[in-house]
Structures are given as structure tokens and as C-alpha cells.
Design goal:
Elements: H1 15-20, H2 22-29, E1 34-41, E2 50-57, E3 62-66, H3 73-80, E4 86-93, E5 96-97, H4 103-108, E6 111-114, H5 126-133, H6 141-151, H7 153-157, H8 168-179, E7 186-190, H9 198-213, E8 217-221, H10 225-231, E9 234-239, E10 242-248, H11 249-254, H12 256-271
Parallel strand pairs: 3-8, 3-9, 6-7, 7-8
Antiparallel strand pairs: 1-2, 1-4, 4-5, 9-10
Length: 273
Amino acid sequence: MTASAGGPTGNGLSPAELAASPQRHRELALGALLRADNLVAGYLPGVNILQGCDFFLRNGEIVGIIGPNGAGKSTLLKAMFGLIPVRDGRVTLRDTDITSAKAHTLVTRGVGYVPQNNNVFPSLTIEENMQMGAYLRPRLFTARFDAVCSLFPLLAERRKTKAAALSGGERQMVAMGRALMMEPAVLLLDEPSAGLSPMFADEVFVRCKKINAAGVSIVMVEQNVRRCLQVCDRGYVLDQGRNAYTDTGSALMNDPKIIDLYLGTLAGSSRHR
């Protein structure tokens, strides 16, 4: 069950209140764009990484997912995107059950996903990578490419450059741009700033705000905790496959308990990525 970090929040519930009132949590999630309830999932038979996670994303939000290594952050994204089997619980998109839906089906329903690794085709040009992103709707390529380039001008300027020749930050822009080619309502980002220089990492967060302003709701798994919480409307802290805390981004970043338990360690680890 999701817990609040405490104090006045958008949820308005203390950890004890949330734990005692599953119905209240369901009420908060009513009408959510993307929602996961009591999710249990893992990679190996009999080994569950997620131990009953709850999550919801409202239309227009940026929601961050943070926590120590091995907490289940990326697993939660993959479970919601149909990349690993859900063993218990439910995932819904606009109140439609998508628990068993495959990733390619979710793309057609308006969900985009950018993995942390291997997220571009290095032997293809930027333009060809964008074409791969629009493969289900090739007739819309020109219009979508123009729209994506308005968010990432680099893509137009270097459209004939192979992705292999790009820096890590530039590749991340290509990966995010390609995921936007199908005009998703939801964009799932798995550690978008990982391995990037501070300059490019900051640029990623700036672009996330612009993507969100263009009408895309975002779920972001991040180890750059402070920067993530600065741009997020709300945040979830996962620990050992369970919800530990949830609150607004600013409340989490300033809560003494969260700083003591998570932010100091996580902020330090993110500096060494």
C-alpha cells in the first residue's frame, strides 16, 4: 500500500491512514490515466521483485519513481508496459484492463517506452530511427517528425547522421524522440539521465518538461533523485519491491525522513553514475 511521507500533501493522508484505508487509495486513483493495483511481478519463476506495488498517473502529470538499487523501479515500468509477466494485481489504461497486453499493443493504445540501454539503432541515421518509431503509421511520418523536431531541434539538424556517431546525450534525445513518433499519451522513461554528463542530464529534464507541456503524461524512473523530484508533480519511493512513500515531488525532496533514509544515499550514488 502506498504511504505518504507525512504532512499536508496532495493525497492528504498519513502512512497510517493509507495503510488502514485501501478504499481511500482506490478513490485517489479513480479516473487515473495509468494505474497499477497490488502488482506482483518478477523475472525468474518463483522470485517476485514487485511485492504488491500500487501506482497511478493522472492526465497531465509527471510522476517520478525513485528508490535504492534493486527496489523494483525498472521492473514496475516493464510490468506496466507488458515486458514481463504480471503474476498478481492489475494494470489499467483509461480504466481498461491491460494487464496481459503485449508491448506492441500498448504502443498502439498510446503508451511509449524508452529503456535505459540499447534504446537506439546505432547503424541507422536519426531519420531512420524516427521511421522505426512510426512503423505502425508510416503515412504520418512527416507530420510526426516535424512535431518531434520542434521538441528536439537536433533531430532535424542531424537527421542524416548515424546514431553511432552521436554522444550519449544525443542518443537519449533520439530515443525519446522515437518514442514520441506514435504520439503517445503516456511516456515511460527508464533512467533517462543515466551515464550522461551533467549538462546533458539537465537537458533531459528540461526536455521532459517540454514534452509534458505538449500534452504527454510522463512516468520517470531515476537515480538523479533531486533533479527528478524538482520536475515531478508527484513521486513514489520504492523499497524491496513495495511502496515506501509517495507525495508531491517538493514534499518528498524536503521531508527530513526521506532525506535521511533515501536522498543522501541516492543523490550520492547518482553522482557516480
